[in-house]
Amino acid sequence: MSVKLTKKTKDQAFWWWYNGNLTGFTHQHMQTFGFMCAMIPVIKELYKDDTHRLRSLKTYTPFFNTEPQIGSMVVGISVGLEEARANGHEEIDDEMINGIRAGLMGPLAGIGDSLIPGTYIPILLSIALGLSTDGSPLGAIFYAIVYIGTMTFFMKYIFDKGYELGGRAVDVVIGEQATAFRESMVMVGTIVIGSLAASWIGVSTALKFDLGTYYNAAGEQVANVLRLQDTLNGIFPNLLSLLTVLFTWYLMTKKKMSPITVMLILVVVALVGVLIGFFDPGLSY
Amino acid sequence: MSVKLTKKTKDQAFWWWYNGNLTGFTHQHMQTFGFMCAMIPVIKELYKDDTHRLRSLKTYTPFFNTEPQIGSMVVGISVGLEEARANGHEEIDDEMINGIRAGLMGPLAGIGDSLIPGTYIPILLSIALGLSTDGSPLGAIFYAIVYIGTMTFFMKYIFDKGYELGGRAVDVVIGEQATAFRESMVMVGTIVIGSLAASWIGVSTALKFDLGTYYNAAGEQVANVLRLQDTLNGIFPNLLSLLTVLFTWYLMTKKKMSPITVMLILVVVALVGVLIGFFDPGLSY
Amino acid sequence: MSVKLTKKTKDQAFWWWYNGNLTGFTHQHMQTFGFMCAMIPVIKELYKDDTHRLRSLKTYTPFFNTEPQIGSMVVGISVGLEEARANGHEEIDDEMINGIRAGLMGPLAGIGDSLIPGTYIPILLSIALGLSTDGSPLGAIFYAIVYIGTMTFFMKYIFDKGYELGGRAVDVVIGEQATAFRESMVMVGTIVIGSLAASWIGVSTALKFDLGTYYNAAGEQVANVLRLQDTLNGIFPNLLSLLTVLFTWYLMTKKKMSPITVMLILVVVALVGVLIGFFDPGLSY
Amino acid sequence: MEINIFQALLLAVMASLTSVIGALGTTYSWYTLSRPLVASLVVGLILGDVKTSIMVGAAIQVVYIALVTPGGTVSADLRAVSYIGIPLAVAAVKGAGLNPASAQGAGLAVSIGALVGTVGTVMFYSTATMNLIWQQIGWKAIDKLNYRIIYLTNFIFPLISHFVIAFLPTFFITYYGTDIVANLKEWLPMDGIPMKTMFTLGSLLPAVGIGILLKQVVQNPVDLIIFFFGFTLAAALKINLVGAAFVGAMIAFLNYKIIMVGAGKKSASHEEDL
Amino acid sequence: MEINIFQALLLAVMASLTSVIGALGTTYSWYTLSRPLVASLVVGLILGDVKTSIMVGAAIQVVYIALVTPGGTVSADLRAVSYIGIPLAVAAVKGAGLNPASAQGAGLAVSIGALVGTVGTVMFYSTATMNLIWQQIGWKAIDKLNYRIIYLTNFIFPLISHFVIAFLPTFFITYYGTDIVANLKEWLPMDGIPMKTMFTLGSLLPAVGIGILLKQVVQNPVDLIIFFFGFTLAAALKINLVGAAFVGAMIAFLNYKIIMVGAGKKSASHEEDL
Amino acid sequence: MEINIFQALLLAVMASLTSVIGALGTTYSWYTLSRPLVASLVVGLILGDVKTSIMVGAAIQVVYIALVTPGGTVSADLRAVSYIGIPLAVAAVKGAGLNPASAQGAGLAVSIGALVGTVGTVMFYSTATMNLIWQQIGWKAIDKLNYRIIYLTNFIFPLISHFVIAFLPTFFITYYGTDIVANLKEWLPMDGIPMKTMFTLGSLLPAVGIGILLKQVVQNPVDLIIFFFGFTLAAALKINLVGAAFVGAMIAFLNYKIIMVGAGKKSASHEEDL
Ligand SMILES: OC[C@H]1O[C@H](O)[C@@H](O)[C@@H](O)[C@@H]1O
Ligand SMILES: OC[C@H]1O[C@H](O)[C@@H](O)[C@@H](O)[C@@H]1O
Ligand SMILES: OC[C@H]1O[C@H](O)[C@@H](O)[C@@H](O)[C@@H]1O
């Protein structure tokens, strides 16, 4: 006796996600509630007793966050897996489902952020800006229609692909292979997050020491200025950003601080840094 | 009772290869026939009965292609292995020989192409051009003698080295170690082929969108031109070349098309691309 | 019955190292004697019979060399391990201790050389030069105090850390895990040494061939000069340095030559190279 | 030019709905309605001057054309830029009688945008923090299988946060702000402590987002090696994210083989099922 | 200047023998006799004006100095460049009374070279395709152990391809071509569809060569990861092939250890025998 | 200006104590007392003109500001630069009546420094070689557990090397050298064989140091793969040492997992204890 989700239920899952992936955002749980809302119709249809419903709902309580649009794939996969679990595949337990969720969210966050807001949107906006040069509303309308149209199609498409994959995954990605696959995906994710950190964080110091002058080999008087940022780059490029990330990671992981606390600490760091001249964005209107 | 190839037979193998490595070239089999012609004297001397001869001749029917001059090493290795097989080493079967052939052809193609026509010949030609500045035939004569001389010596040398290696290989590279070695060589080959693709294919699009102008932060009117090639490079450098290779690979591997068919398809692609303005080499006399 | 080294003995080990890490330097043994001198007080305190003393002293006879200041960590680790061995941990044998020493010395040499004389000292000296612009002794005094002060503190600190680590290591880094760890450290070391070679050796040739002129596509007469160094860089950047290192490695490892002999060979190479015009530093006063 | 009470109300509604965590959802609100170019059409309709508004919006859009918010870190919440910044800029530009497409016009617009962008950042973090209250409620509902509360937690309760943190300030600022805006540059100069700190903070905060992502994948300090490797790819080798993913895939491929070998299977088998 | 029937015949013979898959073998034909500089000496002897021919050949040689043909993909088959292009260029240059070493002389020579180079490319692919006929025959001979046919397939039958595809066209073009050549630039302008398509094709075709190589090493889609990695090395990191081979060796070294561990052997053993 | 016998003796003592393998130990002697800036203070006190000496020392210091000596390879032993070069330069500068901070003054100082730097290099290698004698003695002491001899080998015997190779030459050169120095540039021009050979040697010798390090880690030729990989990182990818260590750590991490899998343990366990 095999249970098959109705199209309607799958659509509900998709649209709850589409509309609510970030609406209840906190830095503590990010997209966890959004994800749960998407799974609720599925869980309600698949299981009739509360014990199973509770077990399955709780499966989705761990932290979740990714680029939400490309991330609809993960929702699709989870729906597929949940369906397979309801059909008696006992290998599919919480650990496996969350392993896959956790394994995918890193890479998809990196790839999604760089491809959607990082690449696709700038292209569309360039075109749209061209259409609006003289104050014409055309560009704005063009952007809204094209972006929402293509993105909705894309999200639905990979949601469906994910659903199929999730279902099939049962036959393939089980046991040790699933572990190996998941761990390796996490590895890609970690590498991508590393690159993300180096590309998108640009902490730098404005500190410089004016050390008078000295005479070089040609006997010329040369200004002797030590820019701390140059020195740090010599040790490793973008070192301060690396250290800042490690610092936040350390506070959250080892000191068990919440993201909010860490942010408050950074507020203090920023203020003190500015006061002592360590930080100076050097901007002007 | 051990069989040892005569010097004469080995020389024949070498010279058949030297003279015929590409003479019967098709995109289907490339150097397969050239390789076979080199092996025939060897097979004839080593085996007296047709069963063995046929078995061994058939060993060399799979596809073969590499930079043919540096590739004379592979011929040498095969001669050595064939000799060892004739001496009763049963581990040396078709799979093993072809594994080694296939493992080496990728790396040697990449390395050979970049070192011989890519580096050595340009140097010789530079010198030769200098000698021919005023229409003197000296440069041409110099190039012909030096290139043929050094290359013939080089080919013979690594053929002999290959032969020795092939003979010795039996004691060493057998069983699982051979598999591991072969697979790892194929891996190097695949990586080198990847680099080859990126270095030697330069598919690019000329498409650009003229999107009027917009005003930047300083209020200056700036031309808003979207060059598709720039955008694609932003996603990944040389992306179009990557996609083109994957496309040909897909057609040949998954759609089982012959290289000729694929080339005809590319003719159509080129023509259509030019007509719609996607491609434009932008050359002039 | 557990033996604990007195603070005094540990301090002695540290200061012997501090003062003598390179005083008895030869290219044959480098820091071996310096290391032994640091271990002697430890060995004398831990063991009362000559058999054990001899065994432990001999543990430190293999070649040792690293950046000596950051290298005080290795001394600390060895002291910790020796103490553990004296307490009956039989897994700690010569092979293990030397494995760790050998595993660490490569990475620490690379990292230490680039961070201390390569980064920290230039910074301090820049500041000091600024303070001495007008012939004032201030800069010299500043440098001497700050460098010696911070470096001594640093060396003592990582010596102590190393000692703790060495003691704890027993519970953790034993058996196969120790082997895996050591081999992997050696791997990092080898990679770092490779980078070191590429960064710090700059062997280049001055050879160039003046090949008259030729006419280019535009019909212009162009000087046709072949710079060997450019050609070599085209094959692989800094190729001559790579070959020189391999040459010295080959002489020392395969031909069992001593470093001194190799250096004398290089003197000849340099002289001959200069005479035939292959080398030319191209300097002037 | 004045902004009347009704207009200010509409602007405040829009500011509540948009933002990266706005009530209309990521695709509609953040990636569409809060883009300055799109917003300028809405603002133009509200203020009754589409042409000027779009010219101002376009100038501001250029600055934020590739805004990315990794791991919930927002350097400029566009809801403020779009629904406070654009209206005020339109008012300021018209008030000063400037051509919005001129150097001064565009410059003024962009300055106002930058200024309120930092205000938006504060709004974003405050909203996300206030949402913690609702999640407390939602969290308890799970055990009771109270689906309704879960949906309310994700969709409805956060409206309260938006009301307090986005609606009210937007209303007041746009309603009273037109006079103030002219002197803002003097009150909050870029080389003053507050603005310097805000922008410094803007460069530090993404580290928290990355830190949160990192926390998910790195439990074991030894795994930081993998993170360092990825950092090196981009920092020292200037590889982009797609390239990093390719290199990462190569490494992960080896890792996969290692684990499979450890599990006693030949990695070759099944491989093709991936 | 005229090219007589006898000269045209000799040039046609040379064109048949050379090419990358020419009858004289790679080292003699492709890498020596078809190099424009070497060819110009041969052409000079045939035409009876060595000096002019070599000056023309040298100018053309510079363009093709580092021509590489990976995986049987040829962007310019030098047999046409050398044995059609050089003679026609010599004729054209002398006809116009130009100094072959002057800007106009060298420019004209190079233009003609480029033009017939594309003709040569068509020749190359056509010859390789026609050879498929002979391989059909040769393939059947294997089972019968008919060595003679195998040798004929590799060495003699392809001469028919060369006769049809290289000899005849070369003969006619060089014999009748001297008048035509002057107007070629007008008939086949570089910004016309035919030449644009030819050159575009020239940039696309190497992909087939690489595709063929790739097909040999990547059966399993998952192995594309390795290919992507190699591509990234050159495309994003600008590493050259030797460097890529070094990096590849490092990865392969780990792979070797993994497989050996999987096979239950310590990789350490035997390693030194490699 | 003359250097008297007493001053020359003091300078010779300093030259014996400093050097990278100087008797005062790495931190005090090499990294402090032999730095030209610090040395110039000492020299100034000895010669009785601190100001001039420091100006000269500062000019020379700039040249050697980032001197690294990997694996016992020294391109310029600063003991000669500092305790022969600086005094002679001070003498020369004052003799010629130059301002040490002028173009000519600084130039002269730096030239003399470069010149005696190569002399120092010879001193360094000679001392290290002479120390082989003492190590012969020390080596025998180990078996006899003769601790005293071991300490003497490392600390006291090498003083003899320093006396012969550094003390005596320094004394004589500084004592008699002031007159000579003016003409040195003519006697040993930079484009003469001796200086060319010296500087060429300077670029070759570090290879021995790296070779020694390499010998420790690469016994098996196959391990050269790892070395080539590291070389490629810096040579082709321009990564610095810290970056190379990060990449290396990633590779080593995989290697660690492979060995652990081979040893029949799941690498996951214990990992965190590292
Ligand atoms: O980085 C992944 C993801 O993190 C958060 O959920 C938000 O900042 C999103 O905009 C982002 O795409
Ligand atoms: O790429 C390897 C090899 O492929 C084909 O055989 C020909 O194109 C050769 O010229 C080339 O060297
Ligand atoms: O390279 C490591 C180390 O090698 C030798 O011991 C000396 O050259 C030191 O100065 C150096 O730090």
Word description of this protein:
The complex is a heterohexamer, with 3 copies of chain A (285 residues) and 3 copies of chain D (274 residues). With 285 residues, chain A is mainly alpha-helical. Chain A has 2 domains: 7-197, no CATH class; 208-275, no CATH class. Chain A is built from 10 helices and 2 strands; from the N terminus they run H-H-H-H-H-H-H-E-E-H-H-H. Chain A has a two-stranded antiparallel sheet. The longest helix of chain A is centred in the middle third of the chain and has 38 residues, at 94-131. Chain A is globular, with a radius of gyration of 25 Å. Chain D is an all-alpha fold. Chain D has 2 domains: 5-217, no CATH class; 220-274, no CATH class. Chain D is 74% helix and 0% strand. Chain D has 12 helices and no strands. Chain D has helices at residues 5-17, 26-33, 36-47, 50-63, 78-95, 103-143, 147-181, 184-187, 193-204, 206-217, 224-235, 241-262. In chain D, helix 1 packs antiparallel against helix 5, helix 1 (5-17) packs across helix 7 and helix 4 (50-63) crosses helix 6 (103-143). Chain D is globular, with a radius of gyration of 23 Å. The relative contact order of chain D is 0.11. The chains are: A mainly alpha (285), D mainly alpha (274). At the C-F interface, helix 1, helix 2, helix 3, helix 5 and helix 6 of C face helix 2, helix 3, helix 4, helix 6 and helix 7 of F. Bound molecules: alpha-D-mannopyranose (MAN) (3 copies). One alpha-D-mannopyranose (MAN) sits between chains C (22, 30-31, 65-67, 109, 113) and F (20, 69-72).
